[in-house]
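As a warm-up, study this chain.
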Amino acid sequence: MSETINTAAQFPSFEKPTVQFNERGWGPCELPDTFKDVPYQPFSKNDRLGKICDWTSTSNNDKKYQNKYASSFGTGNQYSYYHEEDETTFHLVDTARVQKPPHQRGRFRNMRGRGGRGRNPRGGLNNHSHHHHGMTTLNGKNVKARDTRRGMGKKFGHRGPPPKMRESSVAVRADWASIEEMDFPRLIKLSLPNIKDGVDIATCGTLEYYDKTYDRINVKNEKPLQKIDRIVHTVTTTDDPVIRRLSKTVGNVFATDAILATIMCSTRSNYSWDIVIEKVGDKIFMDKRDHTEFDLLTVNESSVEPPTDDDSSCNSPRNLAIEATFINHNFSQQVLKTGDQEAKFKFEEPNPFISEDEDIQVASVGYRYKKWELGSDIVLVARCEHDGVLQTPSGEPQFMSIKALNEWDSKLANGVEWRQKLDTQRGAVLANELRNNACKLAKWTVQAVLAGSDQLKLGYVSRINPRDHSRHVILGTQQFKPHEFATQINLSMDNAWGVLRCIIDLVMKQKDGKYLIMKDPNKPIIRLYDIPDNTFDSDDSDDGEGDDGEGFQQVYNYANNSNKP
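Now compare it with the structure written out below.
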């Protein structure tokens, strides 16, 4: 028993450790001496452990997950290296950049000769191809290696061309008050379904019949585009005598089909445009400004590389718009039977923009004044247009909207060569036009749907020489049903009505006065301004016949200059 007690007495005694109590948080209150002057970096158990040091990795790796090994506490500078002394013994050994081989996909598809010349058994190339100084020598031609890579621009590389700053269609003045900004992502989501077809209120004008021989035109059987001297009226809403008469009895929103199409297809537009709106009581009148280029047709507006802004060039956006408008007017009149004066389709009323005493050649246009019920006691009245009429075998007339697409320079436009593809791959040509001129084709479709046209006739007109903008030929025609073509180009009429109704509701909430909606030239935004009542007033626009505008005056000047040798 005594041995057991002595053995237990030899063990050391146990002393309880001192436990510190931190009243301000958790953790030790004082830093032990053993851990002083030691760098500390917080670490979370959720952080990934990466490589301590990697001298072979490049900066291009893991672009998608660049912060994969980043700490959840952020980056600290406790372990940063600061170079204080200059290393005089350091020398840069190699300054040459590593030249990557150019992209080889699909470049030597047509180099198969007799016996497979141009390829070695391993699928490579023999001595016919060499690489030096960033150049690729192929069959005696030097091609820059960076130009052979897919998806790279010729001038700007991966970055693409710098964004072009466009000018607004009208200068915003200091006394204009901005009321609302509507961005395209919100407008695209709008929808106003179940809008019934418009009801005819009045019909005016005279139409000529379509000449079916133009349906047989192709690339091998082309036909020159003629210059037809006819007056085309582009009268705005408040200058239309029929709308002035109808506004007293029916409707509370008044516009033209061109104005409605511009608003309805606004989400596809890139260029700036503006529309003047006057609110008088519970009525709204939508007008275009006097001396404006509102009616000119845009060219390659939605293209990845739109035309350059060089007014001295015939391929500037403005000169191309004048040329496209000139082509469209002449084509829509040339494809009609103009010889027989009696074989014309006459509406109930004559053309409202000419008097009986005037003896002038007027373009074949039929006007339909229609109304739509948009809900909430909103009744829209608009003037719509037909360009021609077609006699069916049953004897019933089919009304047509005739438009023309024009080719100016396929190389500059990065497009498809019409003379090579139009007869064999017309779908590819149309798809390219839908990509480059999405807004223009959508507006034509909306105008045809609003007018109730049975057919939308599209003509393909090209320059005889890409450098000569005064002479053109017709290479072919194509026709569609407007509603089917709208579905084909992904144009939703429910969304178009929704955008229009949104703008009408905004203006209806405002006080009486004059307003202006304008598409921002460089952003996908539409702005609504409150402008003074005397803005854009002119003394010579009260004659009731309207003004053809500065844009159409340029078209007439273009036609006169084209007639000169």
